[in-house]
Amino acid sequence: MNRNISTVAQRSPSALATNKVLRNTYMLLSLTLLFSGLTAGISMFMNMPPMTYLISVIGGMVIAMFVLPRFANSTAGIGIVFLITGLLGFGLGPMLSMYAALPNGGNVITLAFGGTGVIFMGLSAYVLTTRKDFSFLGGFLMVGFLLVLLAAVANIFLAIPAMSLMISAVVIMIMSGFILYDTSRIIHGGETNYVMATIGLYLTIFNIFISLLQILGIMGGDD
Amino acid sequence: MDWMKIVSALALIMFIIFLFPRARDMMKNSPKGSSQDWLSFAIPIAAIILFIALLIQLV
């Protein structure tokens, strides 16, 4: 009695949609990171002044908060993501030039870049393999982020190096939490728009890179 | 430059004001995590702290 029993592994439409969001997010994230690297290189080549960082970050954040949400569901949203990430990358140029001019600067930049990649890929792999739901972190991370921003405002005027180091360390912890939270939201269907998912993950990577640069720059000093 | 400090502080304060309602909403509506959930968050964070300590040794 030969019966052909064919087993068809069917996935639910929602699981397929989730995988599509994840794949599109990682694809767009890779392209925006490459684009940021390109604009950072252009900024370094043009020898832009330090104020470029401040102007670019403010411009990028204003576009991300007020313009991007209006266009997130259209193809224009992709162009706006490139505009934001290009601006943020361009702002990084003067900072990278400053670190590159330090005696151990090249090493600091390479370690910060590699370290950021390892942290992002490690945390993403952790969420994707365990498939844990980290939605409980939302409130904790947002309040922690607001407190760090308040501390950063105070330290602009206090200029205490130890506090600066502490703020950078806490920012890395909070941004790591946001990677867990955002990736978990994508795989559990909480985030269905890959444009918004990309900008969220890009900003966590950007902040981790900046904070690692500061920590390694301070700790790698000769004194 | 002083004007850069003032602009930075103002930008951060505006950002805090913008994020505050969202933070309050997330605090109210986020599900509560069990001790097991918090442990699954603490483990990768501890690994990152060790990794950063390693990076500091390498620099």
Characterise the protein shown here.
The complex is a heterodimer of chains A (223) and B (59). Chain A has helices spanning 13-45, 51-71, 76-100, 105-130, 138-158, 161-187, 194-219. Chain A has seven helices and no strands. Chain A has one domain (15-219). In chain A, helix 4 packs across helix 7. The termini of chain A are far apart. Chain A is mainly alpha-helical. Chain A is globular, with a radius of gyration of 20 Å. By secondary structure, chain B is mainly α. Chain B has helices at residues 2-29, 35-58. Chain B is flat, with a radius of gyration of 18 Å. In chain B, 8% of the residues are buried. Classes of the chains: A mainly alpha (223), B mainly alpha (59). Chain A binds chain B through residues 50-51, 54, 57-58, 61, 65, 104, 107-108, 111, 115, 118-119, 122-123, 126, 130, 132, 134-140, 142-143, 145-146, 149-150, 152-153, 156-157, 169, 172-173, 176-177, 180, 212, 215-216, 219-220, and chain B through 1, 4-5, 7-9, 11-13, 15-16, 18-20, 22-23, 26-33, 37, 40-41, 44-45, 47-49, 51-52, 55-56, 58-59.
Structure at a glance:
By secondary structure, chain A is mostly helical. Chain A has helices spanning 13-45, 51-71, 76-100, 105-130, 138-158, 161-187, 194-219. Chain B has one domain.
Order of helices and strands of chain B: HH
What's the oligomerization state? heterodimer
Q: Quickly count the domains of chain B.
A: 1
Helix content of chain A: over 70%
- Alpha-beta content class of chain A: mainly alpha
Q: Major sheet of chain B, described briefly? A: none
Tally the beta strands of chain B: 0
First-residue to last-residue Cα separation of chain B: 30 Å
